[in-house]
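#struct-pred

JT: dropping the chains for the assembly here, can someone run the whole complex?
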Amino acid sequence: MKKVINFTLNGEVVEHAVDTNKTLLKMLREDFELTGAKEGCGAGECGACTVIMNEKAVNSCLVLAVEIEGASITTIEGLTLDGILDPLQESFIDNAALQCGYCTPGMIMTAKVLLNENPHPTEEEIKEGISGNLCRCTGYKKIVEAIEKVANDNEE
Amino acid sequence: MNAFEYFAPTTLKEAIDILNEKGEEASILNGGTDLIVRMRDGISDPKYVVDIKKIKGMDDIRIENGRVFIGASALLNDLGNNQDIQKRYPFLSKAALSIGSKQVRNRATCIGNICNASPLAGMATPLLALNATVHVFGNYGEKDILLKDFFVFVRKTLLKHGEIVTGISFEEQACLGVFTKISRRRKVDLSTVCSTVVKKYDEYRISFGAVAPTPVRLNKTEAFLKGKMLSKDIIEKACELAMSEVSPISDIRASESYRRELVQVMLRNSLSQWY
Ligand SMILES: Cc1cc2nc3c(=O)[nH]c(=O)nc-3n(C[C@H](O)[C@H](O)[C@H](O)COP(=O)(O)OP(=O)(O)OC[C@H]3O[C@@H](n4cnc5c(N)ncnc54)[C@H](O)[C@@H]3O)c2cc1C
Ligand code: FES
Ligand code: FES
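RK: done, full complex below.
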C-alpha cells in the first residue's frame, strides 16, 4: 500500500510514493539509493541509521517513511556540498576515527547535531552525546578526538 | 513489517472516529519507539495505523491552575530538558533522560511510555510518586483515571479500544524526590530495577519498576514511614518491609533475589539523602 509524501531531502523538495510499511531508513536506501545510513540493529539500539530530521538526530529505523510528511531530512550524503566534505568528515579521516566505517555515517550525523546545539562541548559532553551510537572497532577514543578537533576549530 | 493503511488525523474527534470504525485491527502510533519495533518483530501486526502526532495541541508541557500537564505527544527530550521541570521536579526530568538514547528520546513520548505499560517503564515511577492522573478521550468525551489504577498487568492498562490518552497531569507540590535506575549498561539499556522516592514533609511515596507485573507503589512501607522521623533503624525496618512487598521475577537482566536485594539498597540510598 503506497502513500504520496512531500518532504525535503538534503535540501531538495521531493514528492514520493512510498510503501506505508517502509521505514525511513529503508526508503532512503532502497528508493533513493542513499546508502550512507546503515542498518545495524534495526531497533533503535546502535545509531548506525542516524539521520537529521528537522534539526534533530533520529534513528531512521524507528521512523516510518510516511511519518516524515512535511519534514526536512539530512543524510550523510547531504553534508558534502559540491564535493567539499564537511569539517566532521575531514576530521574523521584525518584522525583515523574509523576502521570498518559502518558506524561512521551515524556517528557523524549525531556529532553534527551535537555541535550545532553545543559548539564547544566538553569531552564528557561529547561522550554523552554519542552514547546512542555503537562502534565495534575504534574503542571510541579517536572518534571523541575527531569531534573535539572540530569543536576546537569552532572556537577560532 | 506487514502492509497497513496509515492515517494521520489532525483532530481528536477524527482520530477516535477512525479507531472506532476500524476496530481492534487499528493501532495508535505515537513516537513509535515501542510500536515500530514490535511491528518489525511481528509481535504487533495492525491493519491500520493511526498516527496521533499531527493532532494539534497535543505536544505541550505546561504548568497552569496549580497542575503540571504533559501532553500526549510531548517528547522525552522536551520533558527532560524543560527548565521548570528540571527546577521543581528534577527526579522526573532525570527519569525522562534515562530512557534510551538521545535519538530515541527525540521520538519517544512520555505518554507512549506509560501506555506501553512495561513493568520497567521509566516514566511510571516518578509519575506514580507524584500521584498523577491520566486524561483519556473517547467517543463519550473526556474521563480521568488515576495512574495508580491505570496499570493492570504486563503491557495491560485500563484503556479500552477507541480511547486515546491526551495527557498526564499532577498537582503542583513542594516535594523532594530521588529517581534511581540500575541497569547493566550505563546508557541505552532497560532498567534492571528503577525507583522513585518522594518526600513531602513527613509523608513518603515510594514506587518501583521491574519488581512486579506492573510498576507499583509500596503502600505498606509508605504507611510504616508516615509521620516518622528518619533514623538508621527506621530506614532499615522500611527496607525490610519493602523487600517483602515486591514480587520480582528472574529474567535475562537479573535474578529474582538480586532484584529483591536491589529494592532495599535503592530505598536505603534514597531515604538516606534526607537523614
Ligand atoms: C533503544 C531503546 C531503548 C529504550 N530504553 C528504554 C528505557 O530505558 N526505559 C523505558 O522505559 N523504555 C525504554 N524504551 C522504550 C520506549 O522508548 C518507550 O517506552 C517510549 O517512551 C514509548 O513512547 P512512544 O511515543 O515511542 O510510543 P509508541 O511506540 O508510539 O506507543 C507505545 C504503545 O502505547 C500506545 N500509545 C501511545 N500513545 C498513546 C496514547 N496517547 N493513547 C493511547 N495509547 C497510546 C501505542 O498504541 C503503543 O501500543 C527504549 C526503546 C528503545 C528503542
Ligand atoms: S539500525 Fe537504527 S539504531 Fe540500529
Ligand atoms: S568503525 Fe567499525 S563500527 Fe565503528
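JT: nice. Chain B has three domains: 5-51, 61-171, 177-274. The pocket of flavin-adenine dinucleotide (ligand 1) is lined by residues A 43-45; B 27-35, 37, 52, 72, 76, 99-100, 104, 107-109, 111-113, 115-116, 118, 120-122, 159, 164-165, 188, 190-191 (CB under 6 Å).
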